[in-house]
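Render Putative GST-like protein YibF in 3D.
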Amino acid sequence: MKLLYAPTSPFVRKVMICAHLTGQAGRIEWLPSAAHPVNRDARIAAHNPLAKVPTLILPDGRALYDSRVICEYLADAAGDTQLFPAGAARWLALTRQALGDGLLDAALLARYEHTARPAEIQWPQWREAQLVKVRACLDEIEAQADELPQADPDIGSLTIGCALGYLDFRFPELDWRAAHPRAAAWFAVFNQMPAMQATLPHEA
């Protein structure tokens, strides 16, 4: 398998953590790319019409995207039932995945407003509207923090962990821990998991 990736992408990090947890990290060839919201990378577009990472290329040449699909594929390929449990636990895990992904979507849009849009056409109200969503997601994570597993994660807690890690990486000025002490306490433990430490984001 080959994965088109960027070392700063939280959605790529989700996939990398799943690969570590399912024992498949060593089976993946990591292909660097230059995903960008405006400038398409032809290396990605050749396999994914959205030209976004992560994109997983299977041995038969088929491509899988996005992170939600790839993570479930890796779990299924490994026969793992922890990341995507059955029954009622599955719907809780998937809803928490949506919560974490939603936080990340809003955070990325807020970041792109400053990094991808020229200064003369930036829209501060748009960026603030995205950060309102981020804070609302943080409030919900805080409300659920005492119920989140600190070990043996499912896809929901894993995605929330990636989201909080991304805020540390790209939005330290938000100081999200100050108003969310239970979420901060949970993340302090969860972030020490070997798969989390092995996938810390970094500039290329």
